[in-house]
Design a protein that fits this description.
15 helices; 521 residues; 3-stranded antiparallel β-sheet
Amino acid sequence: MVHPFRVDRDPCVEVRIREVLTPEEAGELAVLVPGAVPGGMAVVGLRELFGGAHLFADLLVAQPPVEAMWRRLLAAMTVRVGRLDTRDGEVWLDAREDLLERGRFDPDAVGAYFDPSPERWWLFGGPRPFLQDPRLDEEGGDPAAPGRLVMSRASGANALWSDGTPQDVPVGAAESVAWLLGWYGFGPSGTNNTRRHGGRSTHITKAGPYRSLISYFPHLPGSLFASLVLSVPAPSAWPQCPGPDLAPWETAQLPDPLAVRPPAGPVSLLAGRTAHAVLLCGDGENRTVGCRATWATLTDLPPATDPYVIERDTGGPVRADRGRHLWRDLDALLLHQRAGDKATWRRPTVFDHLAELDPDLLARLGVRALGWEQEGRDRNFAWYSATTPPVLHHLAEADPDGAAAIAAARDSAEGVSRALYGALANAWDGAYPKRESKEKDGFVNQGRARYWAAAEAEFWAVLSDLGRPPAFRSLAVEAFDASTTSLKATGHGRRAIAQSRAQLTRPRPARTPGRAPRTPA
């Protein structure tokens, strides 16, 4: 008989193992993950992940939104296992420093967290399956096909774009855990299973709290342990609402979907916010053969500041945009605030107390960005991930001059992009005054994409030598020349190219701050 799948014990998270281990660490790895080798990959349960976090280099999650959810949930668990749950800011900073110096999680603390009540880690069945609501067995109507769980499969208005597996094919346990997390944070608004609870009945759901957003995490290449510890926000970023600060798996009490409580601390903030209730139907082989996904709240979730998103004073958190390179927002992560033409951006709060770290550690830290471009309803476009080289030693608190120079370089690149936009648009209008605007948009966007690809390499080169002026203008001219070759067939086109190129190569004086022309990003 197949034992019930448990996320604490059974393999559900893929990790990459550090390439170089001491003999003692190699022996520890052999006991913890039999058959695993340095530099290789392994799929582990949560207990093994925390017990061996110092042996692992990083997570290896195929889907960026799932990785974003894993990093949130693992940070919540790190609060407990790492004993980082004190609200005293100075005591917390000392505890984080002690934990980093120790270099690993205390095995006794790992056991104390995962050993009690093993049924809370069950994926299928039991009184409270992991991240699920067992009441849906009676309240949630008939289960949908198992493929409904897998958000990359074609379903409803979400056309095939990633996974062509038919809807009725069962989903393995590890993949079920991954997409359970996906629904928890990125579930769609609109039509789902009808749920009847407390005299209310509807099939309409709210969008998940992280849907359409991009998340940013501190990242240390080669040390999953350090990345987990540094992903825990400091107490200054914790909610102050009354009530117990518990993750769903830490309490037997099921949430009231008619009166959702606001988060009361870091654990409920990182692991307790969802607009969807899900229940998986398993078979005897630990596979999902059906699922119910429906509403966990009839109203918007109580407001809370997520520590991994860039907040704006108007417009809400910054949304994912697959066409926007990570470096274009790097200064918004280094500066406490970045003023803009339409809104002021506030960096993710998880970065607020990294400058207190040991300088040698800070100098090795980069940023891991994870985004999923989506609509609020059941339409998904593209997910993406990016990792910077070490940049967090340029945080404004640690290197104000460096942060300012990086912001100036980014602003210069954006200004040149606006100039290129105008030059390409003018050249097109002069060559084809009667063509449709859609054709011009495609022409201009292609030219700007060529520029941004080259500008990224130039930006990182400038970052390694902040005293060197960036060469964005010359890159824009190269992009202009390459893009306008097709317009030279007529005299009108050649004249328009010459006039527009002159505008680009001989720019007007710098604009007054805050008076940028309105051009597309």
